[in-house]
Structure formats: C-alpha cells, structure tokens
Design goal:
CobQ_GATase1; Rossmann fold; single chain; ABC-type vitamin B12 transporter activity; GATase_3; 14 helices; 507 residues; 29% strand
C-alpha cells in the first residue's frame, strides 16, 4: 500500500462536531486494516485533551491515540500525536510538542506557535508514512470551524498539505445529520471540498433502509457517496478523549459476584484529567461507578476517588466551594476509604506549594495525608513498575507535583509510589487499576473497610476486555462500511472531479 513517493497511504477521518465518533471510527479502521495484515498506525496532528499517556521513551501523547495504537497492535509514540493541548484555565492550555511541554498559551498567543506546530505535525505524519504502510489520521472538532481555518493543522490544513482523502462522519443520534454533513462541505473552500471523499453516518438506531431517501438526496446534493451507516452499539469505547463524552456511568451495569455491590463515587472536577483511570473499575462485575459533584452524592459511597486534575489548586478551590471537602474529611475520620490519583493525591496533602501551575504559592491542602507537595517546573513523565498487596503493578506518571513526607509521620505507610494513612490512599500512578491482581486485592481491602460483603470476580481481565472492544470496532467497520471504497481511497487518494457544493445548496 505504498504510494508512488514511497510513503505509506493516508486517510483522514473528520467529523461534523466534537464527539461525532472520529476516535472510534479511526480505531475501527486501524483494527480492520491490522487484521488484513497491513502495517498501520494512527495519527492526530493536534489533540486537545486532558487524557494522556506516556510512551516507552517518556513522551506524552493523547490517550485516544494510544488506544488507536493498541488497535494497530503497536506501541504508542509521540509521532502519533505531535501536538497536544491540555486546557488548564478558561482561556489557556499547556502546549506539548513531540511529547514535551513548551509552555502555556491562550487563544491569542497560540497563533505565535502556528508555524512551529504545523511543522511538528507534518514531521510526525511524514515519519509515520515512512515507517508504516498506512496511516489513519483523526481530525479535531469540525473542519467547518471556518474562523480557525487559517491556523488549522488538524483538519483540512493537514489534508491539503499531505493530499489526504477525507471521510466526514456525522452523529445521527444528535439529529440533523444530513444538514450537518451537507453544511460542513458547503462551508469549505473549493480546494478543501476537493478532498472530502465521502461520508459516514454514525450511531444509527433503527432499520438502515429508512435512511435511503436521505442518503440518495445527500449524494445528489454533494456528488459524494455515503460509505456506510454505523449502528449504535453501547460499551464500545473505554478511552474517551475528553469530558464531553463523560457520562454519569462509564460502563454497563453488571451483577455482583458476591452478596453486595461496591459503590464508587468519582469526583468530577471542572478540569478532570485522566479519568480513564476509572475504566478498569467499570468493567468489574458488581462495582457501581458514578461521577459526582455534590456532597450528598457521596453519602452511600464505599470508595470516593479524587482523580487527576490539570489545575490542582483551582479544582481544590472548587472542591471547597462545593462543600465536598467537609464530607470527604468526615468519611476519612470514620475510616471510610478515599483514593487520590495524581492531582487528587496532591489535594490530600497538608500543604501545596505551587509557583508553576497556578502561581498561587502556598495553599492549604485537605490535610488527610502527612506530606507537602511542591510543584517542580519540569514535568515528571515515565513508565513505572512496582508491587502492592504482593502483586506486580505497571503504570505511568504525568505530574509536576513532588511529595515530601513529613518527618516522623509513623501512621503513613507506602502505597504504590505514594502513601496510605488509615483509610486514605494516594498515588501519582495512572493506570494502576488496570492491573487485574492488584485491582482485586485493592477492592477486597476497600470492601472490608467499608463493611461490604463484596467479592471481586476472579477472572476479570481488563486487557482482554479492551482487546474485545477493539475487535468489536474492527467488526463494526468490516460489516458496515464500504471497505472496497476505503481500499480505493488508501491506494489512489482523493477521487478526481468532485463537484463544488455552493453555500446556497445545489451542486
């Protein structure tokens, strides 16, 4: 599948909106190609997400691209997501290029980075196309965000630079999918329209033949085919890209293995990050996971989780305004379990010294763990290994905060890379709960402290669950998309002679 220039084939999946299914469709195409024996890799030029992972060589990239890499059967690498933006405030984001943080930028100063980011994106794609037979690219937001077109490097800007055929996906479950697909094309300038090679309709519930009149009209109006209709299927995707796709329940309800259900309440911070740490709990039978924002929602929880945060000090202030701190402290005093992960762990300390992320200097923490947190200018990035409850644990770290335990704090004991004091646990390690034996032992310990007759399933295999979902995505593509058309786009590029769709409608 090499093109005439010796580079691997390329295809860009865009969407009419955020959460239209770009990540899922990209992963499904990757899985389908990998099962055909194609050496394939994912790519997203620019990702805005608070969910990230660390590659083997210590580079930070979006978690969705790591999941797509798993669909390809390969390790994630910085080239797959050369630009990552991590929002920290209402107007600013941390800019990460080739896996390393460059600094903070707002909407205005971001324009100063445009040339550098465009170069980084094209470098990443070029390298992948040298190394792989096919690269399936994912767009960001919508290509019809015409106010951002001059600085676009993720959608039509990338497609134009690399001459990529583009699939445009629309979410029919939101309603208005035909207007969204047609309107997106019509808003693009002719040179961009020339690369829009076909449509995919996503999340359809019902009999596909009911769509036929609309599909025919869409083709007549745009001169472009619909390459398939993907049915609505629950529980396909674990690693959602951002909190827009975060529902109150991250998984399917499963019956308990023992006598009772274990109830987990995860605090949904305004700037919650790496909430994918909780995914392993959602596939555990008998564990009920819900995201909460109010003190009364913690009342019957057996475990409260403070997850990661991109803005630890700001989200700690929000926690106080919500009245959640008093309820968390009451629970800890009563011996009910609380787990802090990364930013949530930092909040549990006695004091936080932050001249880096928030610039607020010394801030009181929740005081539930005997330690002080000091923010370092250099971010800690890496893969980690250790043991807990007698079981091996592999994880990864992404944090500025460094922990200094208080001298003589005899009540604290090690927990992963962090500490446990009574019923309060803290760690910077992301992904630790994906380790099956450790997760079972931890949940058993939580159930004992909470007084629950709960027994974790003995055979839950999170890695196998993830692989099964990736296979389901591959099946979704294989059985519902025109794969012959996908092959043609990969082998030959955008079709020639596609009509221009004027803003008024008729082509």
């Amino acid at each position: 599948m090499r093109q005439g220039d010796g580079h691997g084939a390329g295809l860009l999946v865009t969407g009419t909106t955020s959460d239209a299914g770009k990540s899922v469709i990209t992963a499904g195409i990757c899985r389908w190609l990998a099962r055909q024996g194609v050496k394939v890799a994912p790519f997203k030029a620019q990702n805005m997400s608070l969910n990230s992972v660390v590659s083997l060589d210590g580079a930070e990239l979006g978690r969705a691209q790591a999941m797509q890499a798993a669909a390809c059967g390969i390790e994630p690498a910085a080239e797959m997501n050369p630009v990552l933006l991590k929002p920290g405030g209402e107007r600013t984001s941390q800019v990460i290029v080739h896996g390393r943080a460059l600094g903070e930028a707002d909407a205005v100063s971001y324009r100063d980075y445009t040339g550098q980011l465009r170069e980084a994106a094209l470098e990443g794609l070029t390298q992948l196309r040298k190394d792989y037979d096919a690269v399936i690219c994912e767009g960001a937001g919508s290509p019809a965000e015409i106010n951002l077109r001059p600085t676009d490097i993720a959608n039509m800007g990338l497609a134009r630079a690399a001459r990529l055929p583009v699939l445009l996906a629309g979410d029919i479950d939101r309603g208005g999918v035909f207007a969204a697909l047609h309107g997106t094309v019509a808003l693009l300038e002719p040179a961009d329209q020339a690369l829009i090679s076909g449509f995919v309709i996503n999340k359809f519930r019902g009999a596909p033949e009911l769509l036929d009149p609309g599909l025919r009209m869409l083709r007549d109006l745009t001169g472009r085919p619909v390459h398939g209709v993907l049915p609505w299927l629950d529980g396909l995707w674990l690693d959602t890209e951002d909190s827009l796709a975060l529902s109150a329940d991250r998984g399917e309800a499963r019956p308990p293995v023992g006598e009772q259900t274990l109830r987990v309440a995860v605090v949904r911070f305004p700037r919650i990050s790496n909430f994918t740490d909780i995914d392993a709990l959602t596939v555990e039978p008998g564990v009920d996971v819900r995201f909460v924002t109010q003190p009364q929602e913690l009342g019957d929880a057996d475990l409260v989780v403070l997850p990661g945060s991109r803005a630890t000090v700001a989200d700690l202030a929000w926690l106080r305004r919500q009245g959640l701190t008093e309820e968390i402290a009451r629970r800890a005093a009563a011996g009910l379990p609380v787990l802090g992960i990364c930013g949530g762990y930092q909040m549990l300390a006695r004091e936080i010294h932050d001249d880096v992320e928030s610039g607020q200097g010394r801030v009181p923490g929740l005081g539930l763990l005997p330690a002080t947190v000091r923010f370092a200018a250099e971010k800690t990035l890496g893969r980690s290994r250790g043991t807990a409850y007698g079981h091996p644990v592999s994880a990864y770290e992404i944090h500025h905060g460094q922990f200094d335990p208080e001298p003589g704090a005899s009540s604290a004991e090690p927990f992963l890379d962090g500490y446990r004091d009574g019923s309060v646990y803290g760690t910077t390690w992301h992904g630790a709960l994906e380790n099956d034996a450790f997760r079972r032992a931890f949940l058993s310990d939580i159930a004992r402290q909470a007084g629950r007759s709960f027994t974790p399933a003995a055979d839950t295999d999170f890695a196998a669950e993830r692989e099964a979902r990736l296979d389901a995505l591959g099946d979704l593509v294989q059985h519902n998309l025109d794969t012959d058309a996908l092959w043609r786009l990969l082998e030959s590029g955008p079709p020639t002679g596609l009509p221009v769709v004027p803003p008024g409608g008729a082509s």
